[in-house]
Amino acid sequence: MLKLAKLTDYATVVMTAIAAEPAQLHSAQELADRSHLPAATVSKLLKMLAKARLIEATRGAQGGYRLMRSPESITVADVVDAVEGPIAVTSCSIHAGDCSIESSCGTRANWRLINEAIRQALAAVTLAQIAAPMRRAGTMPAENPITFHPRKAKRNSDAPIPATRPAAD
């Protein structure tokens, strides 16, 4: 099963809490209370998100955390990268030389295409979109829909170009 870690999900919850009031400084305890997560987990996530330069920390009694960029410019891919590292469906989809059968493998190029499609899908959704309140359960706000069109997505120039297949008779 292809699945993001719980910490990644929790990081998105914390980031949406910050994005709800992006100019305000938020304490770790406030974010823990708002997100219904343990304070230790939130503190761990805040360190990871700050290290990735998605949020900034201000020390002191009046300190806290706030976004370093607008919610419209932070993507779900940024949050995943901050918590899990580079998005990789398989190790060879981002790192050459990690596999003993790489030189004879016929699937690496396709895994890289799949990996890039997943990355583009996650990069197409912004924190602002995720933080937008739902008008009613199960629906996206009409003014802020999340859409992704893989055929229209820009290809990464490093990704291999798929070979065309002959038409079936």
Description:
By secondary structure, this protein is mostly helical. It folds into two domains: 115 residues, Winged helix-like DNA-binding domain superfamily/Winged helix DNA-binding domain (Arc Repressor Mutant, subunit A, Orthogonal Bundle), CATH 1.10.10.10; 38 residues, no CATH class. The protein is built from six helices and two strands, in the order αααββααα. Strands 1-2 form a two-stranded antiparallel ribbon. Helix 1 crosses helix 3 and helix 1 packs across helix 4. The C terminus is likely disordered.
Task: Outline the secondary-structure elements.
Layout: H1 6-19, H2 28-35, H3 39-51, E1 55-58, E2 64-67, H4 76-84, H5 108-123, H6 127-131
Antiparallel strand pairs: 1-2
Offer a concise description of the structure.
By secondary structure, the protein is mainly alpha-helical.
State the name of the first-level CATH class of the largest domain: Mainly Alpha
Broad shape: elongated
Q: Percent of residues in beta strands?
A: under 5%
- What CATH architecture of the largest domain do you see? Orthogonal Bundle
Class of secondary structure makeup: mainly alpha
Mean pLDDT: 81
Please report the number of helical segments: 6
Task: Sum up the structure in keywords.
mainly alpha, Arc Repressor Mutant, subunit A, 2 domains, two-stranded antiparallel sheet, 6 helices, 2 strands
